[in-house]
Design a protein that fits this description.
Blueprint lengths: L1 E7 L6 E7 L2 H8 L3 H5 L2 H20 L5 E5 L5 H8 L4 E5 L4 H10 L6 E4 L18 E6 L11 H12 E8 L2 E10 L1 H4 L7 E2 L4 E3 L3 H5 L7 E3 L10 E13 L10 E8 L4 E13 L7 E3 L23 E12 L4 E8 L4 E6 L17 H4 L2 H8 L1 H14 L5 E5 L5 H7 L4 E5 L3 H13 L6 E4 L2 H5 L8 E5 L15 H8 L4 E8 L2 E11 L11 E2 L2 E2 L1 H14 L3 E4 L6 E3 L4 E7 L7 E9 L4 E13 L7 E3 L20 E12 L4 E9 L4 E8 L1
Parallel strand pairs: 3-4, 3-6, 4-5, 6-7, 19-20, 19-22, 20-21, 22-23
Antiparallel strand pairs: 1-2, 8-12, 8-14, 9-10, 11-16, 13-17, 14-15, 14-16, 17-18, 24-28, 24-29, 24-31, 25-26, 27-33, 30-34, 31-32, 31-33, 34-35
Helix pairs in contact: 1-16, 5-16
């Protein structure tokens, strides 16, 4: 049996019906669950195993049987560890696809040792007629995310302690500590606050008061802080413990807390944000530590050249509602807050007004409409400079512009540069509101007219001047891969009756580039496990592979600046697009490129270069920011995601290998199919 699903094509903006497997939603959840990534985390696995062994041994040393409860068992790994460690009984609960996970337990010959319950732990009943005959005295669980508590850990542990566990139970992990590092960073601040737009000498657009005053959003910005350039932030206060969570209940688990920590600034600077991470005690004595700290604060950094890599738990950036200037030696207060699912922070000085302890809420629309990287792209001075220089050469007092992007500042910039009129299509009410704020604040209402969609513009076509210049960054909130932003091309052609016969287009063209690479670690998110800590994972590998084939695109978006890789070839062109023409034809291209280095090829990375006006100095690249060198680490654009085509298996390559590519692009329906191979 199959089912129909609705998908919005990001290239054409049209809704399409697709015939899918009846278990499509389930397979999509499995493929994107991150289980494989977690199970590739050998440190996590080993320290959970150590904690489980110690808990069972300790319970036996008390003269008691070890009755283990595994909440959110997933693949059953922790339950199987408990079985091999001598647990007397094991109950595992999992509400997602438990029948399929049984195969993994069966494959390891432990089906008689583990009792699976297809429920959430909050639904489990204890008693003779319940799901569990008696309470457990050991809990093992992994219900954490980058924010530690974002998956409901507090409620899960509270319920287990109250309803499912004995009073003298042991919990693995037993304790969590949360750390905050107060920092200043001009680069990271560009992901949070929009800066005024200048042409290098004069201010073209000033930031609306509502945008400047907005406290931002409390939503966590999770990144691989170890890859954040060390020269792009300054520590105001070193890492400080702000919260502890005692998962064993020795101290009450509180759903909401606020802490005021008196601190002293170590340097002069501007307090702008907090870096956050956490660590776990995997045993009751604090001897087995699992840390998510970045490289400069990791407890293993002094004894190991290579730290554990993980993508399921990263570090977080929290932007403060207000910046606070400080001098070295100044006393400040770090306010740390949490509710059941999230954290937020504030910093005050003795001169500050009484702080607002409520969770920050975006009031300007910017932080709701856009991802952090999009805000960074809007602030990128090099990118802005290229757009402004290109517009200065194209805009005259007679120019009639049409801007096709979501939340782009190009429309008011073009008006400021002297365009006679600028029409702007804003299909999202949040980005439309943001554009209107800039138009009104900079007094451009008489020259910038904003429409909600193409139909609104076409309905007034009789009264409009013909467009002489179409402009786009391009960027749309519905796109995830850089080339999907050619959606503006489709919009332009739908509005052809509004355009003059001599209309110019910016960008005028685009090139899709590719490069074969070897990743340091990112390959693990798609690689089979085979076995984990001595447990067979063949059936799990098959499940992930089949679910991925059903639900995943062959090319996935990744912010590659966070994931080091090395070039195995020089960049090579896949195809070019000319936006001056219409979109009726299709493109088929194929070719080959020689491998230029020995190594392991994990996949092909793809990106787009936008040619604004034919001037090589006015090319906006979403790919490498420096010319890649074979065998060397690639420096990627930090404000966009690139595409990654992972090979199904790792491929050992040398200079005798050839990479082949074939691309089919149906411009009529916006379908792009990438195929790569090597021989």
């Amino acid at each position: 049996m199959s089912v129909f699903t609705v998908k919005v094509n990001p290239l054409t903006g049209k809704s399409e019906w697709e015939l899918q497997n009846e278990d499509y939603d389930y397979h999509q959840e499995i493929a994107r669950s991150g289980f494989a990534d977690m199970l590739h985390d050998s440190e996590r696995n080993q320290k959970y195993y150590a904690g489980i062994k110690q808990a069972i041994n300790e319970m036996h040393s008390r003269g008691k049987k070890a009755h283990v409860l595994d909440i959110g068992t997933g693949t059953g790994l922790l339950s199987m560890m408990a079985a091999r460690s001598g647990a007397d009984s094991i109950v595992a609960c999992e509400y997602r696809g438990v029948m399929k996970y049984e195969k993994i337990i069966d494959e390891n010959g432990l089906e008689d040792r583990i009792h699976l319950i297809p429920k959430r732990s909050l639904e489990i009943k204890v008693g003779e007629t319940g799901d569990m005959k008696h309470r457990a005295n050991i809990l093992v669980t992994e219900v954490f995310d980058t924010e530690l508590i974002g998956e409901g850990a507090i409620g899960t542990f509270q319920h287990a302690l109250n309803c499912l566990l004995e009073e003298d139970c042991i919990v693995v992990p037993s304790l969590a500590r949360v750390y905050a590092q107060v920092v200043s960073s001009e680069l990271a601040d560009k992901w949070n606050r929009l800066q005024p737009v200048t042409d290098g000498l004069n201010t073209l657009l000033s930031t609306p008061d509502k945008v400047k005053a907005c406290a931002g959003a409390a939503a966590v910005h999770d990144i691989q802080l170890s890859q954040f350039p060390s020269d792009q932030f300054r520590t105001i206060v070193p890492p400080t413990e702000v919260f502890r969570f005692d998962w064993m209940g020795r101290e009450p688990l509180i759903t909401k807390r606020s802490m005021a920590l008196p601190l002293v600034s170590q340097v002069d600077g501007l307090v702008q944000m907090v870096f956050m991470w956490w660590e776990l005690d995997m045993d009751t004595r604090g001897e087995v530590l699992l840390s998510c700290a970045p490289v400069w604060a990791h407890p293993m950094s002094e004894t190991s050249n290579e730290l554990p890599w993980r993508d399921h738990w990263m570090q977080a950036v929290y932007y403060l509602p207000q910046e606070v200037p400080v001098k070295k030696g100044d006393e400040i207060t770090l306010w740390a807050h949490h509710d059941e699912y999230s954290f937020w922070f504030n910093v005050t000085s003795p001169q500050s007004e009484s702080p607002d302890h409520s969770r920050p809420v975006c009031t300007c629309g910017l932080h709701v409409a856009f991802a952090r990287t999009r805000i960074g792209a809007m602030n990128d001075p090099d990118r802005r400079h290229k757009y402004i220089r290109a517009l200065q050469e194209l805009v005259t007092p007679e120019t009639i512009c049409l801007c096709l992007s979501d939340g782009s500042l190009l429309a008011p910039i073009a008006a400021k540069l002297g365009a006679k009129k600028v029409y702007c299509i804003e299909g999202n009410f949040l980005t439309q509101n943001l554009t209107m704020q800039y138009v009104k604040h900079n007094k451009l209402e008489d020259r910038v007219q904003v429409f909600g969609n193409n139909k609104d513009l076409l309905s007034t076509i009789e009264s409009l001047d013909k467009v002489t210049l179409v402009i786009a960054e391009p960027n749309f909130i519905t796109t995830v891969l850089p080339w999907q932003n050619i959606y503006f091309w489709y919009l332009k052609n739908e509005l052809s009756q509004c355009l003059s016969t001599s209309v110019s287009t910016l960008p005028m063209a685009a090139t899709i580039w590719a490069m074969a690479v070897q990743f340091d670690h990112l390959w693990k998110i798609r690689a089979p496990l085979h076995s984990v800590e001595g447990f067979k994972m063949t059936d799990f590998d098959k499940l992930i592979e089949s679910s991925s084939l059903i639900s995943d695109s062959p090319v996935e978006p990744q912010p590659l600046w966070e994931y080091p890789c090395r070039a195995l070839t020089q960049p090579f062109q896949i195809f070019n697009l000319n936006f001056v023409t219409n979109t009726e034809q299709s493109i088929q291209t194929s070719g080959s490129v020689m491998c230029e280095a020995n190594g392991t090829c994990h996949g092909i990375v793809l990106w787009v270069d936008w040619d604004l006006d034919g001037n090589p100095k006015h090319v906006i690249s979403t790919g490498p920011q420096e010319t890649p060198e074979v065998k060397k680490q690639v420096k990627w654009d930090m404000h966009t995601r690139q595409g990654v085509f992972f090979f199904p298996t790792q491929k050992s390559v040398d200079v005798s290998n050839v990479f082949y590519y074939k691309v089919n692009f149906s411009l009529h329906n916006g379908d792009i199919q990438f195929n790569f191979d090597t021989m």
